Amino acid sequence: MLLFGLFLCSAMGLTFVPKSTWFSCTMIRSGFGISFAIVYASLLVKTIFLLSLHQGVYLSAEYQALLLFFIIITQIAIDIQWLLYQRSTLVIDYWDGFGQAVYRCDHTTQHLLWSLCYIILLIGKFPII
After folding, report:
1. Whole-angstrom distance, CA of residue 79 vs CA of residue 101
2. Beta bridge partners of 24
3. If you write DSSP's letter for every residue of 5-18 in order, what string do you get?
4. What are 58-111's pLDDT values in tens digits?
5. How many beta carbons lie within 10 A of that of residue 98, not counting itself?
6. 3-class DSSP state for residue 105?
7. For the G-protein coupled receptors family 3 profile domain, which residue ranges apply (predicted)?
8. How far is CA 83 from CA 13, 25, 54, 58, in A?
9. In terms of Cα–Cα distance, which of 53, 75, 55, 77 is closest to 64?
10. Half-sphere exposure of 32 toward its Cβ, with a 13 Å CA cutoff?
């Protein structure tokens, strides 16, 4: 899962390459949160497994998979709510020399950081454990 999450994180760079469309804007908004959630959830589950193993308690693979599932599904629910509350739209960025409109996504960096607040909470959980 960690390698899959890292692959998704690196693949998210490809969403910035094509012209801005509704689909690419939606992938940027939801893809970052989900890919980071997979990475940090797998690290958190592995940390919890190693800490419990150190204390003499063995956590089964089913428990680890369930914990990973609930961490990832929480981020998916956050992204779905954000997309339902505020749909991805395009706004005109500027007009080029040929009179064609160049579009950009309507979300800002601040909006993306707010969508990653759950991931920031997961990262902050590591020192507590």
Report:
1. 29
2. none
3. HHHHHHHGGGGGSS
4. 889 999 999 999 999 999 998 888 888 887 777 777 788 787 887 778 877 888
5. 5
6. strand
7. 1-123
8. 20, 11, 41, 39
9. 53
10. 19
Between CA 2 and CA 122 the distance in angstroms is: 15
Task: Spell out a b/e string for 49-71, using b for 16 or more CB atoms within 10 Å of the CB, else e.
Answer: beeeeeeeeeeeeeebeebbeeb
The model scores a pTM over 0.85 = no
Amino acid at 92: I
Cβ atoms of 1 and 68 closer than 8 Å: yes
At residue 31, the 3 state secondary structure works out as helix
What's the rounded Cα separation, in Å, for the pair 59 and 75? 23
